[in-house]
Structures are given as C-alpha cells and as structure tokens.
C-alpha cells in the first residue's frame, strides 16, 4: 500500500468520523424555546419542592403525576424524534473533532455555572420566579450554544474538506 | 503493547465503503440508514449489501422500527465491531508511522 493511499484513507476516516457531529440539520425554531420551557418547568417544580409548600406526600405525588412524568415523557419523545430528524446520535464521550470538543466544554461549564446560580436563586425567590429565570437563562444559553456549535461544525468541515 | 502492522488490517473493514460506514458508526450511538446513505453517497442496494457484510461479520447491530412509509432502519457498532475498527485504524496509522 502506498503512503499516499493510506494518508487518503485516514483523511476519509477522519471526515467520516466527524460526520455525526457536523452533518446535522439545523434545529427547528421550537428547539430553544421548547427546551427552555422544559428546563423552566423542571426548575419550578424543584424550587416548589424546596420551598416547603409541598411538604405533604399528597403534593409530592400530585407534582410527580401532573408535571414531572409528562416532562419525562416529553424528553423521551424528543429523543426519539431527534434520532429520526438528524439521523445520527453523536456520542457524548469518546474521540471527537477538537473544535466540537471545545464546544462541549463550553456547554458543560456554562451549564454548571448557570445551574449553580439558579439553585442559589431558588433559595431567595419564590418558586415561580426560579422557573421564569431558568427559562430565560436556558433560552439565551441554548441560542448561544447553537450558534457556537454551528460555527465549530463549519470549521471542522472546512478543515477536513 | 504489540505494534500494529499490515497483519492487523481487517479484510471486512478494508473495503472503502465499509470502512467509511464503520468510521461514521464509530462516533455515533446510532445511525439511520438514510443518514449513512446520504453521507456515503450510496444507492440503497449498495448500502444494504455493505451493511449486510458488516452485520454478518458481527460488527454491526441492526434495529428496525415502525412499519410502511414511516419505517426506519438504524445501525450501531457492536463491541466486536468497535474493537475491530480501532485495530484497523491503528494498523493504518502504524503503516504510516504515526503510532
């Protein structure tokens, strides 16, 4: 086998490996607002629980049935839709293009900082304020993430073109 | 650790179309038939043939969901497939002196 053939093969392999990360269709308009509302609802439920208003087991059971279970079902439906819409579910762990790895790091750090701030907020404001604040933070964060991810994916495609 | 070489090249994976399919699958939990078809720019029959060879080798698991027009076929690497792909890739790198 010639070195140039092998080099070509490795380049094609690298392009193919990057594909699940960078050959994704643009997210639909409802992605950011939908997920922001989802995070907001989850945060509101948790905050309500911490507030002591749900100290009785009846309240906890009602919350679970009326809010948490439908939210969990929605997440399941989203994951199934995601697979058929994008066609590939990139692995969270394992090797990935460095440009994408950087975005994952930004997302993880942003998520942790945002969550820490919102948890702190939950102890000083009413539960519904926590819910609204989470929705707003998640909306802005997801829009920023989408933009940064798209730029990183373009950079990978340009590098491997 | 043993050094990889030409003997580690897997004849099942070595075919370019199958190698590309394995490479796509290596970084995804699951990939649909349609996604592979578009990325690899293959006809349905050709892709089916390549994926059947990988499935027969035990490198790929196939999952089918739905019926009729909404039906979809997905693939994912098996553990043996992941190991075989990694070995093959390392062997290619070793041949180039990149290991």
Question: What does this entry show, briefly?
Answer:
The complex is a heterodimer of chains A (161) and B (99). With 161 residues, chain A is mainly alpha-helical.
Secondary-structure map with pairings?
The complex is a heterodimer of chains A (161) and B (99).
Chain A: H1 3-22, H2 31-50, H3 57-86, E1 88-90, H4 98-122, H5 127-160
Chain B: H1 11-14, H2 16-26, E1 28-32, H3 33-40, H4 44-56, E2 60-65, E3 72-77, H5 79-95
Antiparallel strand pairs in B: 1-3, 2-3
Question: In words, what does this structure look like?
Answer:
The complex is a heterodimer of chains A (161) and B (99). Chain A is mainly alpha-helical and 161 residues long. Helix content of chain A is 80%, strand content 2%. Chain A is built from 5 helices and 1 strand; from the N terminus they run H-H-H-E-H-H. In chain A, helix 1 packs antiparallel against helix 5, helix 2 packs antiparallel against helix 5 and helix 4 runs antiparallel to helix 5. In chain A, 23% of the residues are buried. Chain B has a 3-stranded antiparallel β-sheet. In chain B, a hairpin with a 6-residue loop joins strand 2 and strand 3. Chain B is elongated. Chains A and B meet through helix 1, helix 3 and strand 1 of A and helix 2, strand 1, helix 3 and helix 5 of B. Strand 1 of chain A pairs antiparallel with strand 1 of chain B, so a sheet runs across the interface. Chain B: It comes from Nocardioides imazamoxiresistens.
């Amino acid at each position: 086998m010639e070195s140039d053939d092998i080099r070509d093969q490795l380049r094609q392999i690298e392009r193919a490996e990057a594909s699940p990360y960078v050959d994704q269709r643009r997210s639909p308009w409802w992605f950011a607002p939908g997920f922001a509302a989802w995070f907001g609802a989850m945060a509101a439920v948790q905050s309500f629980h911490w507030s002591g208003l749900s100290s009785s087991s009846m309240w906890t059971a009602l919350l679970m049935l009326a809010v948490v279970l439908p939210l969990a079902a929605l997440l399941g439906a989203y994951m199934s839709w995601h697979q058929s819409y994008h066609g590939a579910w990139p692995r969270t762990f394992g090797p990935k293009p460095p440009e994408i790895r950087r975005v994952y790091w930004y997302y993880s750090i942003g998520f942790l900082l945002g969550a820490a701030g919102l948890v702190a907020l939950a102890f000083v404001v009413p539960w519904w304020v926590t819910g609204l604040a989470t929705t707003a933070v998640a909306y802005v964060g997801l829009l920023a993430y989408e933009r940064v991810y798209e730029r990183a994916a373009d950079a990978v495609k340009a590098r491997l073109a | 650790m043993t050094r990889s070489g030409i003997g580690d090249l897997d004849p099942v994976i070595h075919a370019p179309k199958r190698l590309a399919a394995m490479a796509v699958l290596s970084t995804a939990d699951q990939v649909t038939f349609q996604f592979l078809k578009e990325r690899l720019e293959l006809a349905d029959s050709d892709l089916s043939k390549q994926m059947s060879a990988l499935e027969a080798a035990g490198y790929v698991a196939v999952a089918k969901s739905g019926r009729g027009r909404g039906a979809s076929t997905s693939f994912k690497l098996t553990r043996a497939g992941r190991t075989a792909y990694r070995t093959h890739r390392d062997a290619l790198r070793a041949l180039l002196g990149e290991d």
